[in-house]
Design a protein that fits this description.
By secondary structure, this protein is an alpha/beta fold. Helix content is 43%, strand content 12%. The protein has an 8-stranded parallel β-barrel with strand order 1-2-3-4-5-6-7-8, surrounded by 6 helices. It is globular and about 55 Å long. The structure holds phosphoenolpyruvate and magnesium ion. The site of magnesium ion has 5 residues, from helix 8. This is Phosphoenolpyruvate-protein phosphotransferase. GO terms for molecular function: kinase activity; metal ion binding; phosphoenolpyruvate-protein phosphotransferase activity. Belongs to the PEP-utilizing enzyme family. It is found in: Cytoplasm.
Length: 315
């Protein structure tokens, strides 16, 4: 017998008991933005801007960047769009940044660290974002990648505010940032956890190496502990905390994230409906039980089983 079809949830994300969970799209190009805007999402939780900078000899100037950001923002009306500033390093060919070759690019000058060697690119990008914000109805949120310390967060916030940007955050994708989430949150308006890199750096496991899948499994209890640390720190100061790594697209894992205190989830747009449907049938208290059961497990597989068993109890 086929399982009875579940009713399809509509509208903003929420748990069965009405606790809101923002459901947002990840985008990486203008074409992605066009596709994502046609889905029933609440906005953009991660706009990866690397496409603007890669594979070109010259620096995109403020006018060129403003035009592209404006086009993207117009697609989302007054919905929030969270733009991540350039996340590149010596493994990515950014001709105009003159990056030095590095033995370990994942541990090198990448993400926000580029701002220390070439500040102009960050200032130009933030200036263009400010122009595009003023030209549209967008609710712009801007965040920096690969932030490790509260000092880096403070510097980014000051630079972004100088460009007229009001909602400023950082990504938490380095274990040091997760461990000191309270310090980071004192500097910013919101944080967004990048589980792809947070797994890579927590487990010392290159995310590009397919043989390391078990270490990179987001159900690993050590990763859940770091997410919980950030979730609790954000809850304590009532600031938003998103997850924008690929793991947010797994409906069961999304429920655990909600149980860990995450307030929004950002994913490839086609995954939104599955997550919306899953959350709609689970009360928030059950998401919290799922999260604590998963954290008590001692392997990724056991963590998933524990969460699944509880989710199935509501059927
Ligand atoms: C992440 O690291 O989880 C993330 C969302 O950023 P990216 O995948 O672009 O590194
Ligand atoms: Mg990342």
């Amino acid at each position: 017998l086929a399982a009875p079809a579940r009713p399809t949830a509509t509208g903003p994300g929420r748990t069965r008991d009405g606790h809101p969970v923002g459901l947002l799209a990840n985008i990486g190009t203008v074409a992605d933005a066009e596709r994502a805007a046609s889905y029933d999402g609440e906005g953009v939780g991660l706009f990866r801007t690397e496409f603007l900078f890669l594979n070109r000899a010259d620096r995109p100037d403020v006018a060129e960047q403003t035009a592209i950001y404006t086009r993207v923002f117009e697609l989302f009306g007054g919905r929030p769009v969270t733009v991540r500033t350039l996340d590149a390093g010596s493994d990515k060919p950014i001709a105009f940044l003159q990056l030095q070759p590095e033995e370990n690019p994942a541990l090198g000058v990448r993400g926000i660290r580029l701002a220390t060697t070439d500040r102009a690119h960050l200032v130009d990008q933030l200036t263009a974002l400010g122009h595009a914000q003023r030209a549209t109805a967008v609710r712009l949120k801007v965040m920096a990648p690969m932030v490790s310390t509260a000092e880096e967060a403070r510097d980014f916030v000051l630079t972004a505010r100088a460009a007229g940007l009001t909602e400023v955050g950082v990504m938490v994708e380095v274990p040091a940032a997760a461990l000191r989430a309270t310090d980071l949150l004192a500097e910013v308006d919101f944080v967004s956890i990048g589980t792809n890199d947070l797994s890579q750096y927590t487990f010392a496991a290159d995310r590009m190496v397919s043989g390391l899948g078990n270490l990179l499994d987001p159900w690993q209890p050590a990763l859940l502990d770091l997410v919980a640390t950030v979730g609790s720190a954000a809850q304590a100061v009532a600031k938003p905390v998103g997850v924008c790594g690929e793991a947010a697209a797994d409906p069961l894992f999304a429920a655990v994230l909600v149980g860990l205190g995450i307030t929004s989830l950002s994913m490839a747009a086609p995954a939104l409906q599955g997550v919306r449907d899953q959350l709609a049938v689970l009360p928030r208290s059950l998401c919290q039980e799922m999260a604590s059961a998963a954290r008590q497990a001692t392997s990724a597989g056991a963590a998933r089983e524990a969460a699944l068993g509880l989710a199935e109890s509501v059927r």
